[in-house]
Design goal:
- Helix 2 crosses helix 5 and helix 4 runs antiparallel to helix 5.
- The chain has helices at residues 2-21, 24-36, 60-63, 69-75, 91-103.
- It contains five helices and no strands.
- The N and C termini lie far apart (39 Å).
- The protein has 105 residues and is mainly alpha-helical.
- It holds the Pfam family Cytochrom_C.
- Keywords: Electron transport, Heme, Iron, Metal-binding, Signal, Transport.
- This is Cytochrome c.
- Residues 24-105 form the Cytochrome c domain.
Length: 105
Amino acid sequence: MLQSALRHGLIGLLLITPALAATTAQQRGKAFARANCARCHAIDRVSESPLKSAPALRTLHRRYPIETLGEALAEGIYTGHADMPAFELNPDQIHDLLSYLKTLE
């Protein structure tokens, strides 16, 4: 009985540890992604993108080194399709979003 309770407690702890380990910047970056990107893009490690043609954020590092995206985010992200809004992030938002994107690699 005690062994079962300990096992369940350990499993629960393992499930919440990644959320506890996230830095404040990573948490703010995830919140930014949730508020601004999740309508079209998958913003986590497992979900499918709501808009099938929108790449999951977890795959960005396959196309671009995450560290190099800061300048593009500062200058503004503009795409050739009307569904994606233009984004110009301030330095703190860039830091936070990049911190979160690094967790998805």
